[in-house]
Design brief:
By secondary structure, the protein is of the alpha+beta class. The chain is built from 15 helices and 21 strands. Keywords: Signal.
């Protein structure tokens, strides 16, 4: 399963053809050219320069402007993008990419291996925190010719083939950025990539306008002439914008969950929760393992069995998503659902609580201030825990306050959700490794879970070349962590993309609308 099916010394012609074909077989009818695509963007991105800013809105728009060497399908298998083929050595230490010929940046300059080397080894090492971590595994980069790039790793790093997407590894034009102050380069205001759309105009607070790249290397693509990203701050107003026809696409999270069913019932309206496979958004409640009585595993298990997650899925998330089985999303590589039992069982929860050190203390619940759905969820959990005999209170907070309280470890239970980036070594280990638990960040091992055994397994699994060995290691990790219940895992979140049914192919990779609208066409 996963991208490791391509761990061979040489791609066969058949596999290569499939990699280049991508998801196009799933298209509905014969594509038509022309038209305008109107999409909601919220919040407004601080920048479109995806090599400098990696938040969701920047990745969404930037995915139309910038590209990387690969794309990834819904099973996280790689497909050719700026690379038309790739080989991985038997020892897992050498990755050789053959680049497409005839690719040019939006300013007409050719894209070559020199741009890949500059992007990966210079620009992103300096400006992209996640990429800096990944590139620590790279010993050197060779460019034997304009269309060949060779990455020589210090040791095998299993997730390496999964990092070549625009939000992680965008290809930056060397001729524009070399020798400059990257953060203050004037080109950041008029971003230039190789993608299917070119930047045209940004009216702050209103819209971002992209136009078709007439020199795009894929014949006939993109199909639509232009894309408008509309900035609409209020969720209710975003719903109205769809209902009145101002926008055609509502990306996941654009409207409140309680509005989804009503909008979905409209004529010519389609919905999908696909396109989040790479991110694998997993929700949980951080448990402050340093606070009594939460340092008692029986208290944590009582809370885990006492929370009705199926109710949350059905009543609060419109049936979308999945009930979690532990620290890995089911779309993340090496997921194993056969973990120790954490199902809803209030009677078991009551027994565990009676056997535990809990003595009536008030447990503070810090909700996630991302809208009414999350507030209702905190209230539902409070009710669940009261029913098993636990005293709780909800701590109100805004986004800045939530960030501060979680970073300062000023909480007992705190709602959150994080992305997993397709591989446990990229997006899971960071929240459970003992040496990544320092206060000051809301995104690391906030629970301060300490387990030397799983730390060792995480470190070893990331450097295994064999997918089979990695799978076995991550199975052991999942079982051990679930047995310790350092957090209260909730749902694999289903963020529905809502769109008009005559907008064809809006979600066609594991990155959804973040991956660009290269393949979208309008049946109007």
């Amino acid at each position: 399963m996963g991208i490791y099916m391509l761990h061979t010394t040489k791609l066969t012609a058949a596999v290569l053809a499939l990699a280049l074909a991508g998801p196009l077989a799933a298209q509905d009818g014969e594509p038509k050219s022309g038209g305008t695509l109107n999409v909601v963007i919220q919040p407004e991105p601080p920048s479109l320069m995806i090599g400098l800013v990696q938040n969701g809105p920047t990745q969404m728009v930037g995915g139309d402007i910038y590209e990387s060497l690969l794309r990834y399908d819904f099973d996280l298998k790689p497909e050719g993008q700026l690379a038309e083929s790739w080989e991985i050595s038997e020892d897992g230490k050498t990755y050789t990419f053959k680049l497409r010929e005839g690719v040019v940046f939006h300013d007409g300059e050719p894209f070559t291996s020199a741009d890949v080397e500059f992007s990966m080894d210079k620009f992103l090492r300096e400006s992209h925190s996640r990429m800096r971590t990944y590139m620590e595994h790279v010993e050197s980069i060779e460019t034997p010719d304009d269309h060949t790039v060779v990455f020589n790793l210090k040791q095998p790093f299993g997730p390496f083939i999964g990092i070549f997407e625009p939000g992680t590894a965008p290809m930056i034009p060397k001729h524009i950025y070399e020798g400059t102050d990257f953060a203050n380069n004037e080109a950041n205001n008029t971003p230039i990539g190789t993608g299917p759309f070119k930047f045209d105009e940004w009216e702050k607070g209103s819209f971002i306008h992209l136009v078709k790249n007439e020199d795009y290397y894929m014949e006939g693509k993109p199909y639509v002439d232009e894309v408008y990203y509309h900035v609409i701050p209020d969720a209710a107003s975003r719903a109205v914008a769809y209902e009145t026809g101002k926008v055609d696409v509502l990306p996941g999270g654009s409207v409140e969950n309680f509005d989804v069913a009503r909008i979905q019932a409209m004529d010519n309206t389609c919905i999908t929760d696909k396109g989040w496979e790479y991110f694998g958004p997993l929700s949980w409640m951080w448990v402050n393992n340093d606070n009594k009585p939460l340092d008692d595993v029986k208290v944590r298990k009582a809370i885990m069995h006492g929370v009705d997650r199926q109710f949350a899925k059905d009543a609060l998330w419109n049936g979308l998503g999945k009930v979690s089985t532990g620290p890995l999303s089911s779309s993340t590589r090496f997921y194993d659902g056969e973990t120790p039992d954490i199902t809803f069982d209030p009677e078991k929860a009551k027994t565990l609580l009676e056997e535990s050190s809990y003595d009536g203390e008030t447990i503070r619940i810090l909700g996630l201030p991302y809208g009414e759905t999350w507030q209702r969820w905190a209230e539902a959990v409070k009710q669940n825990l009261s029913e098993i005999g636990m005293t709780t209170e909800i701590v109100p907070s805004d986004v800045a306050g939530w960030n501060q309280k979680v970073a300062d470890r000023d909480y007992d239970l705190a709602f959150t959700y994080l992305y997993q980036y397709g591989d446990p070594a990229l997006g899971v280990s960071r929240t459970y490794m003992g040496d990544n638990a320092a206060p000051g960040s809301p995104w690391n091992n906030v629970a301060n879970y300490q387990n030397a055994e799983t730390d060792k397994l995480f470190a070893e699994a990331a450097l295994m070349a064999s997918p089979e060995e990695r799978k076995a290691a991550y199975k052991e990790i999942q079982d051990k962590i679930v047995e310790d219940v350092p957090n209260i895992w909730l749902l694999e979140l289903g963020f529905p993309t809502i769109y008009r049914c005559d907008v064809k192919n809006p979600v066609n990779t594991a990155f959804g609308v973040n991956d660009g609208f290269r393949d979208v066409w309008l049946d109007k």
